[in-house]
Amino acid sequence: LATTTDVDEDGLVRVATGAGRMAARGQEATGSLPEPVPGRPHDGYDPAVAGLDPAAVELDEWSSWRAAAARTAIASTRGVRAYEERSFGELRVRRHGEPGRSLELSATAVSPAELDTAALGAEADRLLGGGEDRVAGVDAGEYAVVLGHWAVAEVLRRVALSFGGPWSPVADRLGTRVAASAVNLSESPRFAATLPRSYDAEGSPRQPLPLIQDGVAHRVAGAGTGHALGPGGIGGCQPEHLVLVGGAGDVSELAAPIER
Fold first, then answer.
1. Mind listing the pLDDT tens digit for each residue in 118-147?
2. What CA–CA distance (Å, rounded) separates 2 from 245?
3. Which end of the chain has the lower number of beta carbons within 10 A, N or C?
4. What are phi and psi of 87, to 5 degrees?
């Protein structure tokens, strides 16, 4: 299965070629179902989430939240009998400034009770700017820029798509430089700031995975690494607990050479 939103002739040719490549790889691409391996227990479940009142979180007119709680059981012909309870809450804050300027920030936690609506709204207001913070018009051209942590998070969200499965764009570039030597990116499901999870959709325990080491592409999420989005290879694989380390000590150090 391959999907695309690029539906002109070239886009359809590319997605059909990709589907054929995945089918040809067969077992190599999807792998066999995993053997039974115990997953790590976690505290990423709040039973109160299932009974939340939609009015439980106070929001302004430009913000929204959603939450879910689930008990998931996975059984396979390989003998896997995996069980996990998990929940999440997500808060989204939107702000609109001068014409053409708007932004949206989101935060996620095990429960909406852990999300600070006022703090996220204040951060959105600060980033949108106004008065002395207002961004002046910029002439067309190329500029050196420093990305704040919200912008980096969006970049990483998109990068995750490139590290999913043996047919990913990065799979053919393993062992080559794909970023600056200071960049180290890993899939870290045990990192405290990520949502705790034990198993993927096939009942394989989620495992730490070094994706970029010293700027060099090192691994991709694949069969048996704990990143399956669906059973039997359906839906592919994708890292979901990205952690970026390395680089300069702080924003001031990064911004020091920036002229504007």
1. 899 899 888 887 555 555 677 889 988 888
2. 32
3. C
4. -145, 165
**Two structure tokens written together for 192:** 């405290």
Token readout for 144 is 């050196």
pLDDT digits (tens, 9 = 90+) for 23-67: 776 555 556 788 999 999 999 999 999 888 877 777 878 888 899
Instruction: From 31, 38, 29, 30, select the one nearest 79 (Cα to Cα).
Output: 38
Q: Write the CA distances from 24 to 18, 27, 170, 177, 248, integer angstroms.
A: 10, 9, 19, 28, 44
pLDDT of residue 236: 82
Among 209, 259, 212, 213, which Cα is nearest to 238's? Answer: 209
Q: Is the pLDDT of residue 184 over 60?
A: yes
Chain-centre distance for alpha carbon 203: 20
CB 224 within 8 A of CB 27: no
Instruction: Please give the Cα distance from 107 to 206 (Å, whole number).
Output: 22
